[in-house]
Amino acid sequence: MVVGENHGITVLHQLEEIMELQHLTRKIGENRAPLDWETRLRIALGAARGIAHIHKQSSGKLVHGNVKSSNIFLNSQQYGCVSDLGLASMIQLPVMRTTGHHAPEVKNTRNVSQASDVYSFGILVLELLTRKSPLHAIGDNEVLDLVELVNSLIGKERTADVFDVEISRNRNRKQRAKMLEIVMSCVAKNPMKRPKMDLVVKMMEDITSNQLQPKLVFFESHNPDFGLEDILQASAEVLGKGTFGTSYKATLDNGITIVIKILKGVIVTREEFQKQMEVIGRKRSKSVATLMAYYYWRDEKLMVYDYYGAGSVSSMLHGQFGKSKICLDWETRLRIAVGAARGIAHIHTQLGQNLVHGNVKTSNIFLTAQGYGCVSDVGLATLVSTTSVLHSRSSGYRAPEVTDTKKLSQASDVYSFGVVLLKLLTGKPTILSEDNEKANQLVMWVASIVREKWSAELFDIELFKYQNIGEAMMKVLQIALDCVKSVPEHRPKMLEVVRMLEDIGGTYSGA
Known about the structure:
The protein is of the alpha+beta class. The protein has 2 domains: about 1-210, Orthogonal Bundle (Transferase(Phosphotransferase), domain 1), CATH 1.10.510; about 215-510, Transferase(Phosphotransferase), domain 1. Helix content is about 40%, strand content about 10%. It is built from 17 helices and 14 strands. The protein has helices at about 35-55, 105-110, 115-130, 145-155, 165-170, 175-185, 195-210, 230-235, 270-280, 315-320, 330-350, 385-390, 400-405, 410-425, 440-450, 470-485, 495-510; strands at about 1-5, 10, 70-75, 80, 135, 145, 215-220, 235-240, 245-250, 255-265, 290-295, 300-305, 365, 375. The strands form 5 sheets. The protein has a 6-stranded antiparallel β-sheet with strand order 7-11-12-10-9-8. A two-stranded antiparallel ribbon has the order 1-2. Strand 9 (about 245-250) and strand 10 (about 255-265) form a beta hairpin. The protein is elongated.
């Protein structure tokens, strides 16, 4: 196992790119890989986090015991990950008087400690700063310890000569000098004078926070015509506040209009977030909103989508942010239903995956250029706790079993879609009265109307402007009622819902 970025533990074969750091000390002409300053910082910071994580285990008694460049690998974000964890405690270390990465006390006593790990980490970072091996040859038969070499250069006021020529061109001299200061405290001869690894991490994070701030990650099908700075400088307006965050319409200086969703309540590691974004980004369908890019940084996470100019179906039905509602004809409502159903069915039928949308509602459905429904917010329900979903303002869409089991499913998606159909038919909100929410949910109100056979009172008055749609409306109503059945097993699958809606659209109109 390897330990590194975000204190996580990652199985080696899951790393997208693995690079042994012994290439640091190869001579020029021996295919040394170029390493820019930012990459070296990521290696050092990731390794520091990994060692600090190890030191916190077993009540602070765990030691790595063999920190060196050949045990450091790079993960997919180019951060260092520490390998060979715990092996030092399983074998008897020989006396290593000439091994440059061991602390002086280990060379004499063979007793490894957290303080000796700190020393070894200091040697690792010196390798990154100097691109010299721990034992540096200065003559045919003479070898100089890297710590002694660096100390001699500092003593002669030749600190600039410490750094590898590849990074000497980096403009941030203060950052390099501060990193060297941290490292030299790590390689102090007296173990008691060396800092703890969690303090080393904090000091390194303080000097690298701006340098290592990540960029927008774009998917292959999108050319990066803009970056994070363009988004921060763009004019923006609020489109809506939902379960997983706030969405903004942003118009960039180059004329591109995008939707930015700033997420809330998403507490996952970078690796978990990236994995879920990759899953969402692969869902290529005209009926699923296209995820263009994403961004992860500590407590800030955002997603970038294509912009759909017509707005959400919720804003069309009820108006939003000072805008009046839009009169939707029957054919438009049917196209919305067909497109949204196709999108949810596409999510449900991904090969080898039991995927769930988890937050189907009219504010997450938009219109494509062809006027069909398109579902957004795909896959976000898995990034937040179910409790957050249950406490959201979307209770009118929630299947009854979700409240009891706190588990989302494809059947609960079908229920939520049934509520969407009821809203398209009635034009009413999901909660008809805040005074007695349970007794006034849209589903219960529709059930009472159908039971009393007062169907004329059920449909949106706007729909009575159109002729010869009565049979189609009743068919859609029946589909909706099937979708919102209280027993999950009695609800149809989304592919079946798509087929039934397409049959209605085909016999009624071009939808």
